[in-house]
Specification:
Elements (H helix, E strand, L loop, with lengths): L2 E4 L47 E5 L56 E3 L6 E5 L15 H21 L3 E4 L3 H4 L8 H4 L12 E5 L6 E6 L8 E6 L4 E5 L6 E6 L5 E6 L5 E6 L3 E6 L5 E6 L4 E6 L6 E6 L3 E6 L4 E7 L5 E6 L5 E6 L11 E5 L5 E3 L11 E4 L5 E6 L3 E6 L6 E8 L10 E3 L5 E5 L4 E6 L5 E6 L5 E6 L7 E5 L4 E4 L1
Parallel strand pairs: 1-4
Antiparallel strand pairs: 1-3, 2-4, 5-10, 6-33, 7-8, 8-9, 9-10, 11-12, 12-13, 13-14, 15-16, 16-17, 17-18, 19-20, 20-21, 21-22, 23-24, 24-25, 25-26, 27-28, 28-29, 29-30, 31-32, 32-33
Length: about 500
């Protein structure tokens, strides 16, 4: 078996003739112990003490990028070349035996032919290790098969990074210790029913860690962990707060590259689903920050809702005529709901999850056709698109906790009451008006006992309505900028969280 030595174009053909014998193949080993390489270093005359390193390695050890791998010597036996002089007349060859030969080379720009070493050795390849500079006009040969493989590698690596990448998680003050605790203020209420809701009056916490408008807030649905408050902001972050005991920011998740428009807790309270204007969907583990589910959507996302009974299914809508149902287990789209609209503003599941509603930006000249659309979840069929017949869009929808009714916030500066059963008729006798919307995505929410209806306002106030009489009970001057959300705590009576367009979150009691 004959062996060949591959030489660079910069070597001299006259100096390629070997005068030393190559060690026998029986004395070579496939592994490269540190004692098998004799270190030979020379200072090139006239090169100011710089060194140039060459190594001989088996051609069988090539990685996916087409470059030969270096034997696994310990760090102290590995030569690192930081040479900046490209005219070094000396080199070093590293064999797997006990022989090290040094040969002199001329200028790198000279050309030479490859030489063949007779004997029973294996094929060797010389590697020039120069980490700082590259020689113009000289490129290593890469086989066609490896070039084809490498051309598809960037796409695979990019997709793998999207799937396995983690969120940039920043811990707040004692965030790791307080995220899974049970608040002492919540414990007395866990074994009892929710008491009568009273209108909050005093400010408890003022939280202003967000640098952009807060789009949405939500209490953790798990009663034992309901001290945590979730917030999504235009500053590209999602935050988790201890909004009951301390008012501290526990964790910050930076998964998105654009504004986060919607974020929701999972039913178990251990995951956060978020979507934003970067068209990305992320399901993030609360403790570790790892992305359990991540997918690129075809449109910017403005609304997200989990299925009330199927915890692995959620629906997303946004700047598109389509609304999609996703399955987290398979990371695939289950169903697509198409309508002749431009944008989906909000999504609301009706009891048992068999039907759901979407509010859109579609209005006509005489009636708001397709403003609110009812869908059958299983068949993807439209049940009705003639629910709301007034010329106002509805930025938010909310369901009554006990009765089969739902409320739609409208840009007409009032809230309309509807039946949650077919044919979803509007209650013309009740209209909750007095607050201002003025184009903001102002949310509305019922108290856990269903007696109060609370909403924000574009002038920064919070309005409390009596659900049965539709009268204003109290007005709270909460913020200077537009208050876009106000929600009651699911366990503690009369505890309210509000957020505004300036990035502030406040807790009231």
């Amino acid at each position: 078996m004959s062996s060949s030595l591959v030489a660079y174009d910069d070597s001299d053909s006259e100096t390629e003739t070997e005068k030393a014998e190559v060690p026998n193949t029986s004395s070579r080993q496939t592994s490269c112990p540190s004692s098998s390489v004799n270190r030979v270093q020379y200072s090139a005359p006239g090169s100011f003490g710089t060194k140039s390193t060459y190594e001989m390695q088996p051609t069988e050890n090539t990685d996916s990028s087409g470059t030969s791998t270096v034997c696994g010597d310990p760090p102290e036996h590995c030569a690192q070349n930081n040479n900046t002089d490209l005219i070094s007349p000396h080199c070093r060859r590293a064999y797997s035996g006990h022989t090290a030969l040094c040969m002199s080379y001329k200028n790198y720009e000279q050309t030479s032919s490859s030489s063949t070493n007779s004997g029973n050795g294996i094929s060797q390849k010389r590697i020039h290790k120069d980490s700082t500079t590259a020689i113009k006009g000289i490129r290593p040969y890469i086989p066609k098969r490896l070039r084809q493989e490498n051309s598809s590698m960037p796409e695979k690596k990019a997709s793998d990074q999207r799937d396995s990448s983690d969120c940039d998680v920043k811990l707040g003050i004692s965030g790791e210790q307080t995220s899974r605790k049970i608040s002492e203020l919540i414990k007395p209420y866990l074994g009892s029913k929710y008491k009568l809701t009273e209108v909050p009056k005093s400010l408890i916490f003022y939280m202003s860690k967000h640098s952009g408008p807060v789009n949405e807030i939500q209490w953790c649905p798990v009663r034992e962990q309901s001290h945590m408050l979730l917030s999504a902001s235009m500053d590209k972050t999602v935050k988790v707060w201890d909004a009951v005991d301390t008012g501290w920011c526990l964790k910050t998740y930076s998964c998105h590259s654009c504004a986060v428009r919607a974020a929701r807790w999972s039913s178990c309270g251990r995951r956060i689903l978020s979507g934003g204007f970067d068209s990305m969907l992320h399901l993030t583990d609360v403790e570790t920050g790892k992305q359990i589910f991540s997918s690129k959507n075809e449109f910017r996302i403005s609304a997200l809702k989990f299925h009330p009974t199927e915890s692995n299914i959620f629906i997303c809508g946004g700047f598109s005529p389509e609304v999609k149902a996703w399955d987290i287990r398979t990371s695939k789209v289950l169903r697509v709901y198409k309508a002749a609209v431009q944008q989906t503003l909000d999504i609301l599941f009706l009891p048992e999850g068999r039907e759901f509603l979407t509010s859109t930006d579609a209005v006509s000249r005489d009636s708001a056709d397709r403003t609110i659309i009812a869908w059958d979840f299983q068949s993807s069929a439209k049940i009705s698109n003639q629910i709301f017949h007034e010329r106002y869009t509805c930025p938010s929808l909310t369901l009554h906790p006990k009765e089969s009714m739902f409320v739609a916030q409208t840009n007409g500066n009032y809230m309309a009451l509807f039946s949650a059963q077919r044919p979803y008729r509007i209650n013309k006798k009740k209209r909750y008006e007095g607050h201002k919307v003025e184009g903001f995505a102002v949310g509305c929410e019922f108290s856990p006992d269903g007696t109060l209806l609370v909403t924000g306002s574009s002038d920064g106030k919070v309005f409390f309505y009596n659900y049965h009489t539709a009268r204003i009970i109290r007005t709270l001057s909460a913020h200077k900028d537009a208050c876009v959300s106000a929600i009651f705590h699911p366990v503690l009576p009369s505890l309210l969280a509000t957020c505004d367009w300036a990035g502030e979150i406040k807790i009231w009691q």
